[in-house]
Amino acid sequence: MAQIISIYGLVTSVIISNNLIEKMPLHTAFLQLGAGLAVGLCGLAAGFAIGIIGDAGGQYLSLSPPGSVSQSSLSSSLHSTPRLGRRMG
């Protein structure tokens, strides 16, 4: 999720940088500011969510007895964070 949002941020920055002119209307400038803030804040929220899920997964593994959750199931679960959340809940 965070990788896709970072690509969206790159695309948004390229589009905004191609439309920069010296005498830009205020309306257009605020639209571009809003687009940049929206992509940036979505990336920040995705990073927080990934960190919280990773922390919860690490705490879950530290509390479970050895051998109850294999390392391969954990690594396959990390590719899909909603699946890991459902498995823990």
Secondary-structure blueprint of this entry?
Layout: H1 2-18, H2 26-63, H3 71-77, H4 81-88
Helix pairs in contact: 1-2, 2-4
What does this molecule look like?
- It contains four helices and no strands.
- By secondary structure, the protein is mainly α.
- The two termini are 21 Å apart.
- The mean pLDDT is 78.
Search tags:
rod-shaped, mainly alpha, about 90 residues, about 80% helix
Quick structural overview:
With 89 residues, the protein is mainly alpha-helical. The protein contains 4 helices and no strands.
How many structural domains? 1
Chain-averaged pLDDT: 78
End-to-end separation in angstroms reads 21 Å
Oligomer: single chain
Tertiary shape: rod-shaped
- In which range does the helix fraction lie? over 70%
Class by SSE composition: mainly alpha
Strand fraction: under 5%
Total of helices:
4
Poorly predicted runs are: none
Report the biggest beta sheet as strand number plus sense, adding barrel if it closes: none
According to DSSP, the number of beta strands is 0
String of helices and strands: HHHH
Rg from C-alpha positions?
19 Å
